[in-house]
């Protein structure tokens, strides 16, 4: 029993590490604004699939890590991911029975909220976006949701993460 | 409740980091922990560089070698005069009772990553406190000034580029010494030059160099070329835009500048 719990956890951590790498992967300049929010997407999946393992404190820790990586004010992504985690924990039962595209729509809203919170904090620093381009990651994340869902679901079943 | 704690903690962090800058050691530690992430993310580019170097045809390599040798010869020829020019400069400064000449040493660093947020122009470098890097240290590439170091950890550091919206640098026009401030606009190809009145002598094509005022950046390094001047008679200041000299989005190797005051002079 203890063995199974420990095994489950490293899979989740590994998926977060991969999400971090994808979050900082060098991209051509013209694609920069369209980078999906990989860390948020991964957290949303695990929060819906295993709400008792991944929740608010995971969001906080992930957010602080992402802030350090991005060079953002510490706490910016932390706050945003805490809000997203909270919403996932409130809605996970409904989200599980949504169709794929309904889920993608919800992901769009969730990531949109993530982006809005980040912009709010960035504006405190004076580095806010000047156009609505900052919402583009919400679109790209929502489009990638079916892929992320499918992939992580396979991983979860294969490694029997619980 | 956990939620309340998490929200308070994250808001607390935001305030502490934005307003009071008190979390430097925490950031430093997190940067050190985050190095593997950037290392892995850098692998595709490193692989491509490696294959460029090792899988090239021999004739191509021979050509490159010859071209580099020629370039090296030209550069060395140009720098032959440097020693005597520096000595003359020191003598003239002593004659004028000016302050001591600053001699700059450089350290080569490699770019490990770029901040993914398009609004923050930050670079991650592979040199840190163990190489003597310090906060505020200027960064240059082969063509001009790139920015300054804002965070250091043991083996890596973060630099802010001059084009970041929160960055300003004192500059002067190389031609006539007119002083101004060059501010980042958030766009990699544009700097805005402030405090240029409508009657100031400045033209498109002028080279702007660091003025050395403010003590942070040593003087004389090229910063940008003036690209656009808009003189509106109704406004006090002209709107001047400039293009940075450094290849901000293309340089993979950068130089960290260590300024040391010369013993002679003064």
Overview of this protein structure:
The complex is a heterodimer of chains A (162) and B (266). With 162 residues, chain A is mainly alpha-helical. Helix content of chain A is 75%, strand content 0%. The termini of chain A are close together. By secondary structure, chain B is α+β, with helices and mostly antiparallel strands. In chain B, the strands form two sheets. A six-stranded antiparallel beta barrel of chain B has the order 1-2-5-4-3-12. Chain B has a six-stranded antiparallel beta barrel with strand order 6-7-8-11-10-9. The longest helix of chain B is centred in the first third of the chain and has 38 residues, at 58-95. The radius of gyration of chain B is 22 Å and the shape is globular. Residues 262-266 of chain B have low confidence and may be disordered. The chains are: A mainly alpha (162), B alpha+beta (266). The A-B interface holds A 17, 20-27, 29, 32-33, 35, 55-57, 59-60, 63-65, 68-76, 78-79, 82, 86, 121-122, 124-130 and B 2-3, 6-7, 9-18, 23, 26-27, 30-31, 33-34, 37-38, 40-42, 44-45, 113-120, 122, 151, 158, 164-166, 186, 188, 249.
Q: What topology emerges from the helices and strands here?
A:
The complex is a heterodimer of chains A (162) and B (266).
Chain A: H1 2-24, H2 38-49, H3 56-70, H4 76-97, H5 100-125, H6 136-159
Helix pairs in contact in A: 1-2, 1-3, 1-6, 2-4, 2-6, 3-4, 4-5, 5-6
Chain B: H1 2-20, H2 24-54, H3 58-95, E1 102-114, E2 122-125, E3 138-140, E4 145-152, E5 157-161, E6 168-173, E7 179-184, E8 191-194, E9 207-210, E10 222-230, E11 239-244, E12 253-261
Antiparallel strand pairs in B: 1-2, 1-12, 2-5, 3-4, 3-12, 4-5, 6-7, 6-9, 7-8, 8-11, 9-10, 10-11
Provide a quick synopsis of the model.
The complex is a heterodimer of chains A (162) and B (266). Chain A has 162 residues and is mainly α.
């Amino acid at each position: 029993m203890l063995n199974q719990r420990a095994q489950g956890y490293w899979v989740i951590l590994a998926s977060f590490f991969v999400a971090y790498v994808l979050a900082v992967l060098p991209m051509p300049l013209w694609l920069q604004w369209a980078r999906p929010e990989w860390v948020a997407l991964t957290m949303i999946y695990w929060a819906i699939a295993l709400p008792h393992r991944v929740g608010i404190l995971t969001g906080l820790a992930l957010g602080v890590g992402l802030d350090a990586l991005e060079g953002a004010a510490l706490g910016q992504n932390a706050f945003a991911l805490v809000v997203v985690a909270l919403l996932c924990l409130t809605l996970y039962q409904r989200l599980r029975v949504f169709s794929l595209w309904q889920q993608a729509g919800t992901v769009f809203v969730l990531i949109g909220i993530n982006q809005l919170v980040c912009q709010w904090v960035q504006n405190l620093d004076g580095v806010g976006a000047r156009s609505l381009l900052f919402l583009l990651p919400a679109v790209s994340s929502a489009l990638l949701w079916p892929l992320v869902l499918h992939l992580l679901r396979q991983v979860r079943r294969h490694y029997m993460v619980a | 409740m956990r939620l309340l704690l998490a929200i308070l903690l994250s808001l607390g962090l935001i305030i502490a980091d934005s307003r009071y800058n008190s979390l430097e050691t925490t950031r430093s530690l997190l940067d050190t922990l985050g190095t593997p992430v950037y290392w892995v993310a850098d692998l595709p580019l490193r692989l491509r560089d490696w294959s460029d170097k090792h899988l090239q045809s021999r004739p191509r390599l021979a050509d490159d070698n010859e071209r580099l040798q020629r370039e090296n010869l030209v550069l060395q020829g140009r720098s032959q005069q440097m020693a005597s020019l520096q000595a003359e400069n020191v003598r003239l400064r002593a004659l004028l009772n000016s302050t001591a000449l600053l001699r700059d040493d450089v350290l080569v660093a490699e770019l490990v990553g770029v901040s993914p947020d398009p609004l923050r122009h930050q670079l991650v470098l592979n040199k840190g406190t163990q190489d003597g890097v310090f906060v505020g240290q200027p960064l240059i590439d082969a063509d001009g000034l790139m920015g300054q170091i804002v965070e250091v950890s043991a083996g890596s550091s973060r630099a802010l580029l001059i084009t970041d919206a929160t960055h300003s640098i004192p500059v002067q026009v190389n031609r006539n010494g007119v002083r101004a401030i060059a501010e980042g606009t958030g766009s990699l190809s544009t700097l805005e030059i402030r405090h240029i009145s409508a009657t100031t002598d400045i033209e498109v094509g002028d080279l702007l160099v660091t003025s050395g005022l403010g003590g942070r950046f040593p003087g004389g390094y090229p910063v940008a070329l003036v690209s656009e001047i808009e003189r509106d008679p109704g406004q006090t200041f002209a709107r001047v835009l400039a293009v940075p000299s450094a290849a901000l989005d293309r340089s993979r190797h950068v130089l960290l500048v260590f300024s040391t005051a010369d013993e002679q002079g003064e």
